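Practice set, problem 2.
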Amino acid sequence: MLEIDDMIDSPTSREIKRALAVKMILCDFKTKAICSLLNVSEGFVSKWKVVYENEGAKGLRLKYKGGKGFLTETQRIETLLHLKKQPHYGVEELSEWMQRRFGVTYQSRQSYYDLLKAAGLSWHQTQAINPKRDEEEVELKRHELKKTGDPRSRNRIWRSHCFCSR
């Protein structure tokens, strides 16, 4: 039963739930029964019944169609082609380029990240110095390399002195 409830509660079922609630009310189902079957509140049933009475079936449709993008499809393609020509590109560089070229500035950095990702670029900045670098370990490794010439040779030397059977 849980899978059926999950399907009923899925985001794609909103219009269907509205229509079913109204149809069930019109077929004289009790509000509590509708709420139980569709996993909705009594207010949901009441609201969509009133909307249907005032606007008809088209009133049950989702109104939001998404926002208009800042870039046209042509501008987006031009931006992606520009980015693909670059070996590396940062968010600030992209922001400045888009402002100069199209007069567009995004409020959220995520929009720039999405463009960089779509172009196959990484936006992570490299660091000049490894923050996890331990100077003592580096010096020990350098000393070992000078002594043996090959970091893997240490294992060969150890194995040659080992009395284990092979």
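Problem 2, part (b): a different protein.
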Amino acid sequence: MNHKTTQIPSAIAYHMEEAFVSSIKKDGTIIVRLNNGSTCPCSQLRNSILPPVKLNAGDEVFVSVPSEQEDAVRGIVHGKIVSADESLEEDIFIEAAKSIILKAGKTTISLDKNGQLFQKAEKIRSHARKTNHILGASVEVN
């Protein structure tokens, strides 16, 4: 029997620490300044359907970085460290191919890919650029 041997590179060890964004390159590479003063190129982890958190130079971030710096190995920015009063985004953009459904208690808002919005609640206030169909026990217009 003739076997082909493939050499597997050794695993790369990472450690986690807080760091600061030094700069962001045009290709999206995030350069972070580590606690020891060195810098490390990083990619940003995207862990949801929402767009990644917008980062700026000076932002404090939580990163996994290679324990020994190698040219081809990047660190990973897991997220931005913020205080409680900074945690809310000014605007949130959500996009889906088929539909988006929001539900809180007895209230539901549904948006579909055909441009229709459906609402179900105890009390509804609405405004539409086109036809607005309203069904309820009591309806106030303007």
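Answer key, part (b): The chain has no helices and eight strands. Residues 93-133 form one domain.
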